[in-house]
Amino acid sequence: MAQAEQPKRLAIVDDHALFLQGLGYLFAQGPLDVEVALFTTGTAFLAAVDQGQAFDIVITDLAMKQINGIALIAALRARDIGVPVIVLSASEDAITRSNADLVGAFSFVHKSCEQEVLFDAVKAASEASPLPARSMRQGIRRSVFHDDGTDTVLRPKLGEQQQRILALMAQGLTNKVIAGELAISENTVKTHVKTIYRELSVNNRAAAIQRARELALF
Asked: Which of 36, 58, 172, 188 is the most exposed place for a label (fewest CB within 10 A)?
């Protein structure tokens, strides 16, 4: 007698609690045979993975606090975990899709889609063969290069001080005020700001703040 197939284990990661609970209810009432685990942060999800929990499919938001969706996928690949990851995002620009593709997302679904679209994506992921995590990890790049010669950084390398400065910039503080807040010289702030611009592939403060928000850096 054939053994009954076990439900697919689906992890959903989103830092908007109401939306997350709504997704949980959607899958509980939906047609797919899935066992759902909900996580409000990427760090909580990765902690569960590190403690031995295994999942067949992952759905993640892109812009989240602590760890964004791109970093979460990269962390899975770094652990040689080839689980298919569906990016569920409110952004539909080409850069967002390219970034998701480069880190090895299985598919991209917009948050405005009908529920059937999401169900179809999960069904396709459940039927997919395990992903070659190691080879995918080797292909991960820090930048997406465009036809016009510009590039978009996926995972900027910012030190703790630069992250503090970026957060203060987002509050509208000038370099002089930031220097006073951090008890450093204004020239030091300017040096850090140049590094921030370089890492985010931007050339002004407004663009840096916008790009940081897209990557959920604060």
From this structure: 172
CB-CB contact of 208 with 196 (8 Å):
yes
Residue identified by tokens 């606090």 is 65
Q: Which CATH number fits domain 156-214: 1.50.40.10, 1.10.10.10, 3.20.20.30, 3.30.420.10?
A: 1.10.10.10
pLDDT in tens, 158-175: 888 998 999 999 999 999
Does the model's pTM come out above 0.70?
no
What is the biggest distance separating any 2 CA atoms in the chain, rounded to whole angstroms? 75
Beta partners for residue 57, in sequence order: 10
Spatial separation of the C-alpha atoms in residues 126 and 131, rounded to whole Å: 12
Amino acid code (one letter) for 19: F
75: which 2 tokens? 């962390």
